[in-house]
Amino acid sequence: MKRLFDLIVVIVAGFLFAIPMLLVAMAVWFSSKGPIVYWSKRVGQHNALFNMPKFRTMQVETPTLPTHLLGNPDAYLTPIGSFLRKSSLDELPQLWCILRGDMSVVGPRPALSNQEDLIEARTEKGIHALKPGLTGWAQVNGRDEIELSKKVQLDYEYLDKKSLIFDVYVVLLTFYKVVKREGIKH
């Protein structure tokens, strides 16, 4: 049932966001040098690596680190990077990963391959068995503002509560949080 939900959401979102995605791609292209889409190695289900796309919000020479580990993340943002991140428009290319089956609409956000502490903590709690999500329970409960231990706790709560109804609730809560721009630092 979850896979069917994912496919329906991707098809609907694909139609709804086709033109905005084209406009974002053009804005990224014209506002800074480098590729439109940034691909990063991410940790997926059962800790398998996959390539995840995002509209590029950082300068090309930015170190491959979680944003909170960059000394001054704002110094690396492209001219439209902050807007794309705060609006979550940078995440739209991940619809491709959902279509391919590497991700789900709802699940724990995929870790960067160098976030060993997060990967280890999730593995210890069995969270690694879930497909990563475009959004998730931790995302709607703090996003960039929560510490690693709290994030893992929330991911574990999702593992325990996961259901189609809970996924719909998380998606609706995500729209609310994005519109209010809650929990976003950069």
Describe this structure in words.
By secondary structure, this protein is α+β, with helices and mostly antiparallel strands. Helix content is 47%, strand content 12%. The mean pLDDT is 91. The longest helix has 30 residues, at 2-31. The termini are far apart. It has 7 helices and 5 strands, in the order αββααββαβααα. A 3-stranded antiparallel β-sheet has the order 2-1-4. Strands 3-5 form a two-stranded parallel sheet. Strand 1 (37-43) and strand 2 form a beta hairpin. Helix 4 (116-124) runs parallel beside helix 6 (148-161).
Helix content: 40-55%
Strand tally = 5
C-alpha-based Rg, rounded: 16 Å
Number of helical segments with 4 or more residues: 7
- Main β-sheet description: 3 strands, antiparallel
Please state roughly what percent of the residues sit in beta strands, choosing from under 5%, 5-15%, 15-25%, 25-35%, 35-45% or over 45%: 5-15%
Distance between the termini: 35 Å
Shape field: globular
Decide which structural class fits the backbone: alpha+beta
Q: Low-confidence runs (pLDDT<50, min 5 residues)? A: none
Helix and strand run? HEEHHEEHEHHH
The whole-number mean of residue pLDDT values reads 91
Strand order of the largest sheet: 2-1-4
